[in-house]
Specification:
With about 190 residues, the chain is of the alpha/beta class. It is about 55% helix and about 15% strand. The protein contains nine helices and seven strands. Strand 3 and strand 4 (about 60) form a beta hairpin. The model has no long low-confidence stretch (mean pLDDT about 95).
Length: about 190
């Protein structure tokens, strides 16, 4: 059974994933897959062609600089998504049909249109203001940049509507984990 975990940036997806790992579940991180793809020579060459050699830190992609491009310019974001998403989606498809429960944390699950790959989807919820404050603190960024990063994703209320399960991650970890335990009982 393939279970998707999604939500906005800084909503608590990684916290939920860490808890699942502690409980012995297999959790795959799509962002880690993206980072792997950003090390691929073909991907690096395409990004250098698009953005110039200034996108590099040594022989690797400077992810912070790449982020500045893609959150400032929608066309650049679409270019990156078209380059990376098919590769990551192909990797996710390898897990479909496996009998065990596998969780895959996919921040842009709905945005990439891959919800049909999953048997169930969990949205980790935090409201816009909470996410913005967490993101600014976590990444040490301005409010303006945090808003750009958040607005690059589907509205959280829309994600909630589409979810099979919603974990409200605004009121402490104990409450979050109790909700997750309830979801796990329903899945098993």
């Amino acid at each position: 059974m393939l279970i998707g975990i999604t939500g906005l940036i800084a909503s608590g997806k990684s916290t939920v994933s860490a808890y699942l790992r502690e409980r012995g579940y297999r959790v795959i991180d799509a962002d880690a897959m993206v980072r792997e793809e950003l090390e691929d020579e073909t991907v690096i060459a395409a990004l250098v062609e698009r953005f110039g050699a200034g996108i590099l830190a040594g022989k690797s992609i400077n992810r912070k600089k790449l982020g500045q491009y893609i959150f400032e310019n929608k066309e650049d974001r679409l270019f990156l998504n078209a380059l990376i998403h098919p590769r990551v989606i192909a990797k996710i498809k390898q897990y479909a049909g496996i009998d065990d429960i596998i969780f895959i944390e996919v921040p842009l699950l709905y945005e990439t249109g891959i919800e049909a790959l999953f048997d169930k989807i969990i949205v980790v919820y935090a409201d816009y203001q909470t996410v913005k404050e967490r993101l600014m603190k976590r990444d040490n960024i301005t409010e303006e940049y945090a808003i750009k990063k958040i607005n690059a994703q589907m509205d959280i209320e829309e994600k909630k509507k589409r979810a099979d399960f919603v974990i409200d991650n605004r009121k402490g970890l104990d409450r979050t984990f109790r909700q997750l335990d309830t979801v796990l009982r329903r899945l098993i």
